Automatic annotation (TrEMBL), chains A, B:
<dbReference type="InterPro" id="IPR036388">
    <property type="entry name" value="WH-like_DNA-bd_sf"/>
</dbReference>
<keyword id="KW-0238">DNA-binding</keyword>
<keyword id="KW-0804">Transcription</keyword>
<feature type="domain" description="HTH gntR-type">
    <location>
        <begin position="12"/>
        <end position="79"/>
    </location>
</feature>
<dbReference type="GO" id="GO:0003677">
    <property type="term" value="F:DNA binding"/>
</dbReference>
<keyword id="KW-0805">Transcription regulation</keyword>
<dbReference type="InterPro" id="IPR008920">
    <property type="entry name" value="TF_FadR/GntR_C"/>
</dbReference>
<dbReference type="InterPro" id="IPR036390">
    <property type="entry name" value="WH_DNA-bd_sf"/>
</dbReference>
<dbReference type="GO" id="GO:0003700">
    <property type="term" value="F:DNA-binding transcription factor activity"/>
</dbReference>
<dbReference type="Pfam" id="PF07729">
    <property type="entry name" value="FCD"/>
</dbReference>
<protein>
    <submittedName>
        <fullName>DNA-binding GntR family transcriptional regulator</fullName>
    </submittedName>
</protein>
<dbReference type="Pfam" id="PF00392">
    <property type="entry name" value="GntR"/>
</dbReference>
<dbReference type="InterPro" id="IPR000524">
    <property type="entry name" value="Tscrpt_reg_HTH_GntR"/>
</dbReference>
<dbReference type="InterPro" id="IPR011711">
    <property type="entry name" value="GntR_C"/>
</dbReference>
DNA sequence: TCTTGTTAGATTGTCGACAATCTGATTGTC
DNA sequence: GACAATCAGATTGTCGACAATCTAACAAGA
């Protein structure tokens, strides 16, 4: 038998595709926080019945990026500054843990993947593709979670990121100035390749410090904004 | 106007009730890991159509206690020894964080609630109600998460617990010996009331150590067991 | 004017039926 | 007997229609 690593075949249900479509729309900011999702309209636009759409929505509710009020509707979550602050402080703890677990498991494949994802961020930055820049930056950051060999930790991280990605996207969208072209991940990557674990942990803290601080000030300004209706 | 704190009225959809029913059945071990959930049979038993049942199932899939394979079925998750180990090690980290955050927020209401939950565990123990004993013990442990004032942390803990509760229940069910009558939470509670935060953190680690070690050895024995069909 | 009751429209929740897919048994062929 | 093709039954996925509920506008009464 040939030694081929067959990846799992794609999900073939409408539901799965709807989930992907909706998630993308939310995480890129096409659907704004607080906005209501009208089932009939969306199902007509997607040429799908309401059943799979509703099931998809239930998934995203549990994923934490939608919230549902019985007989009232399903809405994009309205993340508060406190939510971001909470996620941020938890992220610090998880980062330390992830680095600690990943540390002894680092190998050539890890370093290669690290470089590859770093390259993806740099390319997105060059192309001024802000959405992709956020996406790739989070993927770069997520490598330590994927490598830590702890499924529960990884799952936790993924739930955390989706909401963060959404808010980073809105943030970028709001300040329509050019994104910093310099490479802020250089130190992070090289530290992960180095020998000083404590230094890497320390830097990871300060690294996300920067991103979050800006995000937080943005969120605090939005706090008194009225929520978007339908 | 009278000063009454009205709590939110109960969810009135069938879906919500189905979720509660299924969750309870899984977490108490009535539905075994690996078991398949036949939609038609369950919907007939509950006198409900498949639509709300399926939506409920999608929620529980995202909650991590069910897994779904398209066109094959939805099954109770088959937790491995590694999953428990992963959850266990993450729990250590989260416990430390939760205690740290809760520490400055402790007040009389916290201590009262602590005693109340502790009492609930002791009562369940006296009554030899193992299911309730697990439930109350986890609720006691969960207080530091509820009090930490961090919604993301709390959410993470709740996801973690549901799977743990399920496995603790199966474990208790398997070894049909009497549950230890002595009170293992006495020290934990008194440390949370004390002044030494580090000591409380240290004990929380060792405390869950005990529970998990036994659970792990049980899970490792089960590892080669064939998965339950329908 | 303010409050309360009513009602029409829109939207969500639920249902029963049909389509797509899978599984296992059966048949046919070598 | 081993293997592939076929087929029937069961189960999941999807659909369109109906029931339950909410919202907002309007009317009636204090």
């Amino acid at each position: 038998m040939a030694k081929v690593d067959f990846s799992p075949i794609a999900d073939t249900t409408r539901r799965a595709e709807i989930v992907a479509l909706l998630r993308r729309a939310i995480l890129t900011g096409q659907l704004e926080p607080g906005q209501k999702l009208n089932e009939i309209r969306i199902s007509e636009q997607m040429r799908v019945s309401r059943a799979p759409l509703r099931e998809a929505m239930r998934e995203l509710v549990q994923e934490g990026i939608l919230t549902s009020i019985p007989y009232a509707g399903t809405f994009v979550v309205d993340v508060t500054a406190k939510d971001i602050d909470d996620a941020y402080s938890l992220n610090k703890v998880l980062d330390e843990f992830a680095i600690e677990r990943t540390w002894p498991l680092r190998d050539q494949r890890f370093f290669d993947e690290l470089d590859q994802r770093h390259e993806a961020v740099k390319q997105a930055t060059r192309n001024r593709d802000t959405t992709r820049q956020i996406e790739t930056a989070l993927q770069l950051h997520g490598l330590i979670y994927e490598w830590a060999d702890n499924s529960v930790l990884l799952e936790t991280w993924q739930r955390l990121t989706s909401r963060l990605q959404m808010y980073f996207a809105l943030h970028q969208q709001a300040r329509n100035e050019a994104v910093p072209a310099e490479d802020v991940h250089e130190t992070y990557v090289s530290l992960l390749k180095g020998a000083d674990m404590r230094a890497a942990q320390r830097h990871a803290r300060e690294h996300i410090d920067l991103d979050f601080e800006e995000l937080l000030s943005y969120a605090r300004n939005l706090e008194q904004r009225p929520s978007k209706g339908d």
